[in-house]
Every structure is written in structure tokens, then in C-alpha cells.
Amino acid sequence: LGQSYELDAIAAVILGGTSFVGGVGSIWGTLIGGLIIAVLSNGLILAGVSDIWQYIIKGLVIIVAVALDRYRLQAGART
């Protein structure tokens, strides 16, 4: 039933630098995150990756971005 862009929107915001647990983000970071997701989606389509694997890959990108953000926050708290 149509396109669902929720995962893409969440991924764009997270990749743009907005902390998943709250914080300050920027419109420019979100635009760059959106560009990254658009390039990733286009590349996966051109490579012939099925829809379900595209969702899995995008989900993994979100998980990695959140994990890196948490690591960065914890490393900053130790200093």
C-alpha cells in the first residue's frame, strides 16, 4: 500500500547527527543524512537488492549510527 518512508526519515535524522536519546540536531546534518540514505537506496536498487534486504541494510545502518553515537557520548563523558 504505497511507499513507506518512515525508516528513511529516521535514518536520515540519525545519520545527520541528531542523538537518538535526544539532543540538538541541525537541518544541514539532516539534509546530508537524507542524501546519504538516498544514495544508499539508489545504489541498492541499481544492484538489484530485494526490498526486504534493503530494509534490513537500512536498519543495520541505523543501529551502527546509534551505537557510534552512544560510544562517542560515553567516550566524551570519561574525559
Structure, described:
With 79 residues, the protein is mostly helical. It has one domain. The protein is 73% helix and 0% strand. α1 (6-15) packs across α2 and α1 (6-15) runs parallel beside α3 (51-78). The relative contact order is 0.15. The mean pLDDT is 85.
Per-chain topology:
Elements: H1 6-15, H2 27-46, H3 51-78
Helix pairs in contact: 1-2, 1-3
Quick tags:
79 residues; mainly alpha; 3 helices; 0% strand
Provide a compact summary of the structure.
The protein is an all-alpha fold and 79 residues long.
Series of H and E elements: HHH
Helix coverage percent: over 70%
Oligomer: single chain
Low confidence ranges: none
Number of individual domains: 1
| Structural class estimated from helices and strands | mainly alpha
Number of strands: 0
Sheet with the most strands? Answer: none
Calculate the mean pLDDT score and round it: 85
- Coarse morphology: elongated
Distance between the termini: 49 Å
Radius of gyration: 14 Å
What fraction of residues sit in β-strands? under 5%
- List the total number of helices: 3
